[in-house]
Amino acid sequence: QVQLVESGGGLVQAGGSLRLSCAASGSIFSINDIAWHRQTPGNQRELVAVITSGGITNYADSVKDRFTISRDNAKNTVYLQMSSLKPEDTAVYYCYAQIKRLPWTGYIAYWGQGIQVTVSS
Q1: For labelling alongside 63, which of 36, 46, 47, 98 has CA 20 to 30 A away?
Q2: Spatial CA neighbour of 82 closest among 17, 37, 21, 13
Q3: Which residues pair with 11 in a beta bridge?
Q4: For residue 64, how far is the Cα from the chain centroid?
Q5: CA distance 24 to 63
Q6: pLDDT tens per residue across span 15-74
Protein backbone atom coordinates (compact mmCIF):
# COMPACT_ATOMS: atom_id res chain seq x y z
CA GLN A 1 0.00 0.00 0.00
CA VAL A 2 1.17 3.51 -0.81
CA GLN A 3 0.23 6.71 0.98
CA LEU A 4 0.90 10.36 0.21
CA VAL A 5 0.69 12.61 3.25
CA GLU A 6 0.73 16.39 2.89
CA SER A 7 1.77 18.81 5.61
CA GLY A 8 2.61 22.47 6.04
CA GLY A 9 -0.67 24.12 5.13
CA GLY A 10 -2.47 26.74 7.16
CA LEU A 11 -3.41 30.39 7.33
CA VAL A 12 -1.05 33.11 6.15
CA GLN A 13 -1.38 36.78 5.31
CA ALA A 14 -1.08 38.02 1.75
CA GLY A 15 2.56 38.45 0.82
CA GLY A 16 3.63 35.71 3.18
CA SER A 17 5.16 32.30 2.55
CA LEU A 18 4.39 28.68 3.26
CA ARG A 19 6.14 25.43 2.45
CA LEU A 20 4.10 22.34 1.72
CA SER A 21 5.56 18.87 2.02
CA CYS A 22 4.29 15.57 0.69
CA ALA A 23 5.85 12.33 1.84
CA ALA A 24 5.22 9.07 0.04
CA SER A 25 5.37 5.91 2.11
CA GLY A 26 4.74 2.22 1.68
CA SER A 27 5.89 -0.23 -0.93
CA ILE A 28 7.70 2.02 -3.43
CA PHE A 29 10.19 0.97 -6.08
CA SER A 30 10.42 4.29 -7.91
CA ILE A 31 8.58 7.57 -8.37
CA ASN A 32 8.17 9.26 -11.72
CA ASP A 33 6.47 12.66 -11.95
CA ILE A 34 5.33 14.34 -8.74
CA ALA A 35 3.00 17.31 -8.78
CA TRP A 36 0.93 19.69 -6.72
CA HIS A 37 -2.62 20.48 -7.73
CA ARG A 38 -5.17 22.73 -6.06
CA GLN A 39 -8.91 23.03 -5.96
CA THR A 40 -11.42 25.60 -4.79
CA PRO A 41 -15.13 24.90 -4.18
CA GLY A 42 -17.08 24.58 -7.39
CA ASN A 43 -13.97 24.48 -9.56
CA GLN A 44 -11.93 21.76 -11.19
CA ARG A 45 -8.65 20.67 -9.73
CA GLU A 46 -5.83 22.50 -11.48
CA LEU A 47 -2.16 21.72 -11.86
CA VAL A 48 0.08 24.07 -9.89
CA ALA A 49 3.54 22.60 -10.44
CA VAL A 50 5.15 19.35 -11.54
CA ILE A 51 8.66 17.93 -11.27
CA THR A 52 9.90 14.95 -13.24
CA SER A 53 12.18 12.22 -11.98
CA GLY A 54 14.98 14.05 -13.75
CA GLY A 55 14.25 17.30 -11.96
CA ILE A 56 12.57 19.18 -14.80
CA THR A 57 9.90 21.54 -13.48
CA ASN A 58 6.85 23.19 -14.93
CA TYR A 59 4.47 25.69 -13.36
CA ALA A 60 1.05 27.16 -13.92
CA ASP A 61 1.34 30.71 -15.20
CA SER A 62 -0.46 31.99 -12.11
CA VAL A 63 2.31 30.79 -9.77
CA LYS A 64 5.44 31.21 -11.89
CA ASP A 65 8.19 33.13 -10.14
CA ARG A 66 6.37 32.76 -6.82
CA PHE A 67 6.26 29.00 -6.21
CA THR A 68 9.12 26.50 -6.34
CA ILE A 69 8.69 22.74 -6.49
CA SER A 70 11.50 20.43 -5.43
CA ARG A 71 11.97 16.80 -4.48
CA ASP A 72 14.16 14.71 -2.22
CA ASN A 73 14.33 11.30 -3.84
CA ALA A 74 16.06 9.73 -0.85
CA LYS A 75 13.10 10.69 1.33
CA ASN A 76 10.39 10.17 -1.32
CA THR A 77 9.25 13.69 -0.55
CA VAL A 78 8.20 16.65 -2.66
CA TYR A 79 8.06 20.24 -1.50
CA LEU A 80 6.23 23.33 -2.67
CA GLN A 81 7.74 26.58 -1.50
CA MET A 82 5.10 29.27 -1.88
CA SER A 83 6.07 32.92 -1.65
CA SER A 84 4.32 36.22 -2.25
CA LEU A 85 1.05 34.47 -1.54
CA LYS A 86 -2.18 36.04 -2.76
CA PRO A 87 -5.77 35.52 -1.57
CA GLU A 88 -6.46 33.78 -4.88
CA ASP A 89 -3.97 31.07 -3.90
CA THR A 90 -6.44 29.96 -1.26
CA ALA A 91 -7.39 26.36 -2.03
CA VAL A 92 -7.02 22.77 -0.98
CA TYR A 93 -3.66 21.59 -2.27
CA TYR A 94 -3.23 17.99 -3.35
CA CYS A 95 -0.07 16.01 -3.87
CA TYR A 96 0.04 13.67 -6.87
CA ALA A 97 2.65 11.08 -7.72
CA GLN A 98 3.23 8.38 -10.32
CA ILE A 99 4.58 5.43 -8.37
CA LYS A 100 5.92 2.05 -9.37
CA ARG A 101 5.58 -0.41 -6.52
CA LEU A 102 7.55 -3.26 -8.07
CA PRO A 103 10.20 -3.36 -10.80
CA TRP A 104 7.95 -5.23 -13.23
CA THR A 105 4.80 -3.14 -12.72
CA GLY A 106 3.79 0.11 -14.36
CA TYR A 107 3.39 3.50 -12.80
CA ILE A 108 0.13 4.14 -10.95
CA ALA A 109 -1.23 7.54 -9.99
CA TYR A 110 -1.72 8.30 -6.31
CA TRP A 111 -3.23 11.33 -4.61
CA GLY A 112 -2.83 12.74 -1.14
CA GLN A 113 -5.80 13.64 1.01
CA GLY A 114 -5.35 17.36 0.46
CA ILE A 115 -4.34 20.21 2.74
CA GLN A 116 -5.93 23.62 3.18
CA VAL A 117 -4.02 26.78 2.38
CA THR A 118 -5.78 30.03 3.24
CA VAL A 119 -4.34 33.42 2.35
CA SER A 120 -5.97 36.38 4.05
CA SER A 121 -6.02 39.85 2.51
Answers
A1: 98
A2: 17
A3: 118
A4: 15
A5: 24
A6: 999 999 999 999 999 999 999 999 999 999 999 999 999 999 999 999 999 999 999 999
Pairing of strands 77-82, 67-72: antiparallel
Which residues are CB-neighbours of 37 under 8 A, at least 6 positions away?
A: 45, 46, 47, 48, 93, 94, 96
Tell me if 49 sits within 8 A of 57, measured CB to CB.
yes
Q: Which of 72, 62, 65, 60 is nearest to 34 (CA)?
A: 72
Cα–Cα distance, 114 to 92 (Å, whole number): 6
Instruction: State the virtual CA torsion across 55, 61, 67, 70 in degrees, nearest 10.
Output: -10
Element containing residue 15 per DSSP (H, E): none
